[in-house]
Amino acid sequence: MTALLWAGAAGALLFNAVFLADGLTRPGYDPVRQPVSALALGSRGWLQTTNFIVCGLLVTAGAGAVPAVFDSLLLAGAVGALGLALVASGGFAMDPMRGYPPGTPDRAPEELSRSHRIHDAAGAVVFTLLPGTALVAAFVLADPAWKWASGIVCAAAAVGAGVFGQAWENDSRYAGLVQRATILLGLVWLGVLFTHGAVR
């Protein structure tokens, strides 16, 4: 069980590290405006695609240890679904748009591909479960400190997901920044929870 928890922690935390480093070093990419998913496009797109799939699988594997360690099938299901949604996000790329990859028109295409629509659906699951998993944890975890921390993360991630949705629809220059902050919050919390379970 401990190995599965460490796998989950690695997946949650490594996902953040890879998209942050790749976004800051990718030529022609604006991490403040453009979403994490756009990193799966272009000549270096394989890196973010791999990040989605490998880290999603690690999070899903970590979910297998949750019932025994945290005594909650509901929490395990939420974590596992989050991991699988990350995998699906990697399996179906978004369409080029809004200036990335370089040379792409600075707008959204009039018609979206099937891959983009599936990617959007998987992303909606991710951004529902980032606060949703923390909400479940706030109810099922026994430690009062973890209950409060999980509740705070839930509220903040829910606000972040809502703000990102509006920012993306309005093509805000800060959409990527809001998205990154929300993902970081949710996955750092999850990585720390996995680590807590592994060392307690």
UniProtKB/TrEMBL annotation:
Keywords: Membrane, Transmembrane, Transmembrane helix. The keyword Membrane applies. The keyword Ribonucleoprotein does not apply. The chain crosses the membrane at residues 45-66, 73-94, 121-141, 148-168, 180-199. It holds the Pfam family DUF998. This is DUF998 domain-containing protein. It comes from Nocardiopsis terrae. The lineage of its organism: Bacteria, Bacillati, Actinomycetota, Actinomycetes, Streptosporangiales.
